[in-house]
Design a protein that fits this description.
Helices cover about 70% and strands about 0% of the residues. The protein is mainly alpha-helical. The protein has 2 domains: about 90 residues, Rna Polymerase Sigma Factor, Chain: A; about 70 residues, Winged helix-like DNA-binding domain superfamily/Winged helix DNA-binding domain (Arc Repressor Mutant, subunit A, Orthogonal Bundle).
Length: about 190
């Protein structure tokens, strides 16, 4: 089975996978695993743990496939499972801690486009250096597109804490980028 032919038979694959067809499940796994590993990796620093988390997520995908109603994006449905599984993994490791702050400190808006010559791997490394709470909120907001109210509900924190964590994550990233630019261009 080629990936191109799988894409054309998307709905048929889902239907077969719902009936327990292992080849269809394998086809869906092959189609979505690279993207979903990337999703898990955004939250979890360790490549091995991110992969294990993705596998747990796919287990949930296939055991709960009947709950997918063919309404909306199947990829979006899988992505949400992966995000939730990643957050659950962070909680299991007790790495997801938040300071409950309702006030934003120095609520400066940072430019959303920072001119850099960084590779994706360098940016991911900077994001990985953020404290887990900052990182999780940053990825949910900036990468996944969640609203603060959704983040608050998902992480069981206040909306103010979500905003504060994002603000602090942006500040830390800005400092890291500025520092790295100074190192790269010898302006330190």
């Amino acid at each position: 089975m080629k990936l191109i032919s799988l894409h054309k038979n998307y709905a048929a694959l889902i239907t077969k996978a719902k009936k327990g067809n292992r080849k269809a499940q394998h086809g869906l796994y092959q189609m979505f695993a690279p993207k979903m590993l990337s999703v898990c990796r955004q939250y979890i620093k360790s490549d091995d743990l991110a992969e294990a988390t993705m596998l747990k997520g796919f287990y949930k995908v296939f055991t709960k496939l009947d709950s997918f109603s063919d309404q909306g994006s199947f990829e979006g449905w899988i992505r949400r499972i992966m995000v939730n599984e990643s957050i659950s993994e962070l909680r299991r490791q007790k790495k997801l801690l938040f300071n409950d702050e309702s006030q934003l400190e120095n609520s400066l808006e940072y430019a959303s486009h920072i001119k850099t010559d960084f590779a994706v791997e360098e940016i991911q490394k900077m994001i990985d250096e953020l404290p887990e709470g900052y990182k999780t909120v940053f990825v949910l907001y900036a990468v996944e597109g969640y609203k603060h109210s959704e983040i608050a509900e998902l992480l069981k924190i206040s909306e103010g804490t979500s905003k504060s964590q994002l603000s602090k994550a942006r500040k830390m990233l800005q400092k890291m980028i500025t520092h790295q630019n100074n190192v790269n261009y010898g302006t330190q």
